[in-house]
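The methods section describes the discrete structure representation at length, but only in general terms. What matters is that the chain and its backbone geometry are given together, residue for residue. Nothing conveys this as quickly as seeing an actual entry. For illustration, here is how one protein appears when written out as sequence plus structure tokens:
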Amino acid sequence: QVQLVESGGDSVQAGGSLRLSCLRSGVIWGGSCWGWFRQAPGKEREGVATIYISDDTTYYADSVKGRFTISRDNGRNTLYLLMNSLKPEDTAMYYCAASRPSDSCPLGERGYDYWGRGTRVTVSS
């Protein structure tokens, strides 16, 4: 029902910026969530930023607040993650995820039903 394709991952130096994109096709429910998650080598996947489609409320992990911005373009069915002031600890595979209708947009992955294959971000010091 929902397909997600990420792009924009790259290798950058610390302090640099990247913008990730997630192109969505299929159903978009008004009261659902869309977000970015990441998984670093040897670590569990963690939530980075999510957005509630009905009112564009956003949620961020503490580790990225003030540096990352999540946004979406309705006309292009695309979700973005603008990442500024990148740090080596931001190195990870970044995944786009979407939920079915929901009352909230958790940063935990259990609330999400659809996942992309990921795009890799590498930040060197």
